[in-house]
């Protein structure tokens, strides 16, 4: 674990013996992949070949339709299940769900019946995307826009999560835990630019795409208090690492913890510099509480990502069910 000072090295446990697969060989990105929308699809009478799903070598599978290229591909759900009592930030309203109507409460003349539920939730619980209206600095949102005129009891008239354009394209995952030879980074571990450089070795980071950070924290989802990290903190990018991410101009970044960024032991969410850097200064959306463990277990480093939060008009965030599609 070269490059770590003694204090940071002490945070890292010895390898557990449950190591993930060795990292894939460096990806040939001499011809970078764009998103599906950037590549486009030729019309039947244009005479142009139709691209298939991107392959690890940086090319495309064949001149087949996208739906044919996707047939048989592995799809990995990157969302945590939403349920009452799940780990979440204490700063947001909790998720609640109850059956409003049960089978038999009303029966139709033909014997049919239906059930439904009432759901009450904050926009920042479970796996979710932060809108650019979520964080301000000195009263200003992204682009220097004053927050006051945009907000009302109905939400935000602009920069709400409904303005997030659905994403379908290439994403990369930087497995920082694997860099250090562990399955899970320690609570309170601050990810640095050097960590990200090492995790990104062999990958090309393309502006407008999505960067995910692997910490292994998904494995602690069932440990309610430990996952939240109020006492011991959570691993995540420090301010310098957030600037490293912003310098690559991603459409969004994501991680496994409830706050994405480094939370020191005993500090809680007192200050969130990475949110300021990404949301306010650079307009980069943040995805939090992702379940990245099944993706990390494959050893994949780049993949097709579907990211489309609920279009809650004027909301500062919304639940999302990200999907990774492996070639």
TrEMBL record:
<feature type="compositionally biased region" description="Low complexity">
    <location>
        <begin position="13"/>
        <end position="26"/>
    </location>
</feature>
<feature type="compositionally biased region" description="Polar residues">
    <location>
        <begin position="28"/>
        <end position="40"/>
    </location>
</feature>
<feature type="region of interest" description="Disordered">
    <location>
        <begin position="1"/>
        <end position="64"/>
    </location>
</feature>
<dbReference type="InterPro" id="IPR007325">
    <property type="entry name" value="KFase/CYL"/>
</dbReference>
<dbReference type="GO" id="GO:0004061">
    <property type="term" value="F:arylformamidase activity"/>
</dbReference>
<dbReference type="GO" id="GO:0019441">
    <property type="term" value="P:L-tryptophan catabolic process to kynurenine"/>
</dbReference>
<dbReference type="Pfam" id="PF04199">
    <property type="entry name" value="Cyclase"/>
</dbReference>
<dbReference type="InterPro" id="IPR037175">
    <property type="entry name" value="KFase_sf"/>
</dbReference>
<protein>
    <submittedName>
        <fullName>Cyclase</fullName>
    </submittedName>
</protein>
């Amino acid at each position: 674990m070269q490059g770590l000072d003694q204090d940071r090295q002490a945070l890292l446990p010895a390898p557990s013996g449950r190591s993930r697969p060795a990292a894939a060989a460096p990806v040939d990105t001499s011809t970078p992949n764009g998103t599906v929308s950037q590549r486009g699809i030729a019309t039947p009478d244009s005479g142009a070949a139709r691209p298939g799903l991107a392959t690890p070598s940086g090319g495309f599978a064949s001149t087949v339709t996208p739906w044919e290229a996707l047939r048989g591909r592995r799809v990995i759900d990157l969302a945590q299940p939403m349920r009452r009592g799940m780990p979440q930030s204490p700063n947001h309203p909790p998720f609640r769900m109850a059956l409003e109507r049960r089978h038999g409460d009303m029966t139709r003349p033909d014997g049919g019946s239906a059930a439904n539920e009432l759901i009450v939730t904050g926009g920042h619980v479970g796996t979710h995307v932060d809108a650019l209206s979520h964080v301000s600095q000195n009263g200003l949102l992204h682009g220097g826009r004053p927050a006051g005129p945009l907000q009302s009891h109905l939400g935000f008239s602009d920069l709400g999560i409904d303005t997030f354009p659905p994403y379908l394209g290439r994403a990369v995952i930087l497995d920082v835990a694997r860099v250090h030879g562990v399955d899970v980074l320690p609570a309170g571990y601050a990810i640095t630019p050097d960590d990200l450089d090492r995790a990104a070795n062999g990958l090309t980071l393309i502006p407008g795409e999505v960067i995910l950070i692997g910490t292994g924290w998904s494995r602690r989802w069932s440990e309610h208090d430990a996952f939240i990290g109020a006492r011991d903190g959570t691993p995540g990018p420090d301010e310098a690492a957030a600037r490293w991410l912003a310098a690559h101009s991603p459409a969004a970044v994501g991680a496994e913890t409830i706050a994405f960024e480094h939370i020191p032991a005993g500090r809680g969410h007192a200050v969130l510099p990475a949110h300021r850097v990404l949301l306010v200064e650079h307009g980069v959306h943040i995805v939090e509480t992702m379940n990245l463990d099944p993706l990390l277990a494959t050893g994949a480093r780049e993949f097709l990502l579907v990211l489309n939060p609920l279009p809650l008009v004027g909301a500062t965030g919304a639940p999302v069910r990200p999907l990774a599609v492996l070639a």
